[in-house]
Amino acid sequence: MKAVGARLPRYDGVAHVTGKSVFVDDVRIPGTLCVKALRSPLHHAGIVSLDTSKAEKMPGVHAVVTHKDVPLNVYGHLSALGIPADEPLLAEDDVRWLGQPIAAVAAEDEDTALAAVEAIKLDLEERPAVFDMRIAGDPDAPQIHHWGNWYPHFEAEMDVRQIRKGDIDAAFDAADVIVSGVYRPAAIEQAPLETQTGLAVPEADGRITVYSCTQALYFSMGVVAAHLQVPLNRLKFVGGTVGGGFGGKVDTAAEAICALLALKGGRPCKWRWTREEEFLCSSTRAAWHIEIADAVTKDGWILGRKTLTLHDAGAYARFSPYGVTKHSFHHTGAYSIPNLHFDGYVVFTNRSPTSAMRGYGVTSVSFATEVHMSRIAKELGIDPFEIRLKNANRIADTSPNGIAYTDPSTVPTIQAIAEAIGHELPAEYRAMTPDPREGDLLPEHLAAQVGEVDH
Amino acid sequence: MAKHTGRGISAIEYPTGMNQNGDPSQAWIKIKPDGRVDVFSGTSDIGNGSKTIQSQIVAETLGVPYDWITYDNSNTDSSPVCTGTFASRATFVAGKAVEKAALSAKEKLLEIAAKELEIAPEDLEVVDGEVIAKGAPQKKIGVPDVAAAATWVHGELITGTGAHLNPYAAIVDPETGRVDSPPHAAISYAACAAEVEVDDETGEVRVEHMWQCFDVGRAINPTLVEGQIQGGALMGLGLAVLESCYPYYPSVEHRGTEFGSYFVPGIEGLPKIDTIIIENPSALGPYGAKGISEMANNPQPPAIASAVFDAVGVWVTELPITPERVLRALEKKDEGPRRDGKWVIFDEDISVNTVAAEGSRFRFPVGA
Amino acid sequence: MKLTVNGIGHEVESHGLQSLLYVLREELGITSPKAGCVQGGCGACTVLVDGEPRRSCLTPLAALNGAAITTLEGLGTPESLSVVQAAFHEQYGSQCGFCTPGMIVATTALLERTKKPTRHDIEQALAGHYCRCTGYVKIVASVEAAAGGAKK
């Protein structure tokens, strides 16, 4: 019996329908304490003073942690990829988003934990905030990040992610029409049904077991090990059964703080984010601002594309440089556009830091470029299927960064949709395939971009 | 004062694996004395079904029934590294590691079976839990008997390990963005058509029907693939017409703090969703599979936006396409884009050219 | 006070304003009802109170004296799945599994009162149950299969 290709039952199906699947919040460890955090009430402020003494002395409070308790407070999740660290686990000198964690407590029960948080004395000096990416680049914009208002550490210390290909000026000179537009897909929540939940248990042998809802056990273990400055075998991450993630459970939101509290208090510490915390404080999909100008011919060839992308990273970089890089690599969508001028910026604003969500970096491209393509079709009076099919990636066409496509399926997927909705394509378009361009499908302007396919 | 129907389409692509690669996954397998198979993988299942399809890959590769597989991804003491369940890599990259582990275990299994049957391992195959001589099916031994022989006769442990890593593709020239090798494991493709009904008095957009075609390379489990496509469709619908962390973006005012004030799509008014799966196998993925779970929510927003234009003649390019945005666009419908020489310039009022100050770092020159 | 859950009587210690969700999960260790939002907004905490689906996160203990509570655990077991549980499994109506307890409980109640629910009945019964994973298509198929209706 073949297993691959078979509609076999879910491995965890019976467990799910009988309530036996174990999520982090279902784990029962005797003596578990409740964790609550002190979060910034302001969008942008300097921390003048922080006094946790009253909270620490409160009956039922086992541990309070601040930045002072974190062996390595500022650790970059993607340091291994050359993205330097900018975000503290617990705020030290300033806060840059409303909800940023400043301190955390572990107490006998939820009411005590909340009262302890209330008892922490926090003195802030408010600073001006920036929320609109488009003005973050103004000469007189308030500076809200110690690197400036946009990420300056791409390769060669560039402050912009660039793609340059072919001769964009020649393309714009040769165009019959140039269509420009502005696209702003929204910041949205991953909103999984399970909120961020972590449970850290100090074990008798000195190890810490961390029950985690992470999408990436080893990645999150690495983050906690770095903050705690311990080797990986000091930790045991337990999980693998997650109540929805969609990219929002890679940021390792609860685990490091739980581990610190467990170490300090000597008791298991669980932090289950409230739904309100999930909405207000967990990372979101980024809002994007994408301006596109396409140089096109009357008969629907896209000769060249200029793009300006602003990505709203929120208060800290997290994975945004990665997201903008991925976005740049795919900014032509499913089409072969030979002349390109792309600039993409990771812009900081005083909102909750943005992070991965389903389609990271490319969801925005798909929205912007596909609406733009439909607009071009409308302007030129060309069928929206036909304009897509002729510009669609073919085998050996090259990507924005010079890699030849080996098996693009743009043509068959478009043809399948045309058939599904009963849109009749002319014979010439019905006959198209992903095979390398030739004849009418290889006009002069596309010749130079044809590459070598690596088989 | 009427409801108008419109259709729009989109065609997209999306990479499988982390951008620029360098994201390892590993797995190991051991076979118990009665032939049952234990798989240790580090891949978290976030609902996408990675536990299921990785078990299917092992069953297929090893040649044993699916229900002989025990899959353990529960902890970092027994499971090796998996970079994570993101970047659509759980089927391709992590699945490849699991496939390699199964091949490695199979090699050991056949080595023992060869001793038992006195037939060279290359002349043996494993089918439905039995090791059979190719071309001479009467010469066979059950996997349970091979495992027992390994344990009690030969003093061997049947295991296999596998690791997969696509090498990091560095940006060789940051001025142009050129890379030295493919910065992805594979690329997946999809196309979508959406049909909407727009009420020109209330501005409400109802998504009635979505047709989606996905090239998944190879559907390891077609029902799970459908589930991803359907789930993605609703998430895409949410991004298109319902959801916003910041209803007055870029203002941070009035953020929704509960499901009643942040609009996740519900079951009422579920659009009809037609799914077409194409299998154009990837060169290197396990059994030709590619990842599509993220891409699943990418094609709907533009198809819906184009459908809104088709219905009522306005382009709404700020998401979500709320009734307010539709009505405001309808008020300005006759304005159209600015035309300057061969330029057709849309959306100037929201461009950086209008909003940013003189001397801003962010400029996008338009016009003749 | 006394609370009967899945046919077993318990003497619960929590005060009268404590939520049924808390009592079930923290006092009695019955973890299928989930704390998805604890705001009454998602449906993941839904249990049957004298056969009626209720948000356990919003139901205070004091309102339940003598009530019979049924959770997902009481509907069936891996060895003996209920019709609804079997349908959700066979029709793949569950992905991450977090919304599943509430979905199955609500569906069970629906089918008790309406043997052949229309599509509208199904949408009404599950309108307050969010699923972020499935897009609801296979959930609808699961309900229809449980009702003995068309498979899709």
Task: Explain what you see.
The complex is a heterotrimer of chains A (455), B (368) and C (152). Chain A has 455 residues and is of the alpha+beta class. In chain A, 25% of the residues lie in helices and 21% in strands. Chain A contains 14 helices and 15 strands. Chain A has a seven-stranded mixed beta sheet. In chain A, strands 7-15-14-13-8 form a five-stranded mixed beta sheet. Chain A has a three-stranded antiparallel beta sheet with strand order 4-2-6, with no helix packed on it. The model of chain A has no long low-confidence stretch (mean pLDDT 97). Helix content of chain B is 27%, strand content 26%. Chain B is an alpha+beta fold. Chain B has two domains: 3-15 and 184-331, Aldehyde oxidase/xanthine dehydrogenase, molybdopterin binding domain (Aldehyde Oxidoreductase, domain 4); 20-164, Aldehyde oxidase/xanthine dehydrogenase, molybdopterin binding domain (Aldehyde Oxidoreductase, domain 4, 2-Layer Sandwich), CATH 3.30.365.10. With 152 residues, chain C is an alpha+beta fold. Chain C has two domains: 2-74, Beta-grasp domain (Ubiquitin-like (UB roll)), CATH 3.10.20.30; 83-146, DNA polymerase, domain 1 (Orthogonal Bundle), CATH 1.10.150.120. Chain C has five helices and five strands; from the N terminus they run ββαβββαααα. In chain C, strands 2-1-5-3-4 form a five-stranded mixed beta sheet, covered by helices on one side. Chains A and B meet through helix 4, strand 7, strand 8, helix 6 and strand 11 of A and strand 1, helix 1, strand 10, strand 11 and strand 12 of B. Strand 8 (177-183) of chain A pairs parallel with strand 15 of chain B.
Alpha carbon gyration radius of chain B: 27 Å
CATH architecture of the largest domain in chain C: Roll
Q: Low-confidence spans of chain B: pLDDT under 50, at least 5 residues?
A: none
Count the strands of chain C? 5
- Count of discrete domains of chain C: 2
Q: How would you spell out the order of helices and strands of chain B?
A: EEEHEHEEEHEEEEEHEHHEEH
How many extended strands of chain B?
Answer: 15
- If you consult CATH, what is the topology of the largest domain in chain C? Ubiquitin-like (UB roll)
Distance between the termini of chain C: 46 Å
What order do the SSEs of chain C take from the amino end to the carboxyl end, as H and E?
EEHEEEHHHH
CATH superfamily of the largest domain in chain C: Beta-grasp domain
Q: What's the CATH H-level homologous superfamily of the largest domain in chain B?
A: Aldehyde oxidase/xanthine dehydrogenase, molybdopterin binding domain
- CATH structural class of the largest domain in chain C: Alpha Beta
Can you summarize the main beta sheet of chain B? 4 strands, mixed
Helix content of chain C: 25-40%
The CATH class of the largest domain in chain B: Alpha Beta
C-alpha geometry of chain C? globular
Order of neighbouring strands in the sheet with most strands of chain B: 1-11-12-13
Largest interface: A-B, 143 and 139 residues
